[in-house]
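Sequence in, structure out. Go.
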Amino acid sequence: MIGHAFISSASVTMVKEFADPEAALDPLHMGISGRPGWLVMGAFVVFLALAGRLRSAADGTP
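Output:
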């Protein structure tokens, strides 16, 4: 719930706060929902898969 609140509000305003005032704000290149965010989330999923933390619910382990 806290993570959702951060992504919904603070991450967008943080990008605007730290960006160059003259730069055009392109949503594709900023924030967690842009390319950088997808790369970080993808790397995290790969890490979880390699660490064995992504198991199917069918094997009965919690």
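Check: The radius of gyration is 16 Å. Residues 23 and 61 are 50 Å apart (CA to CA).
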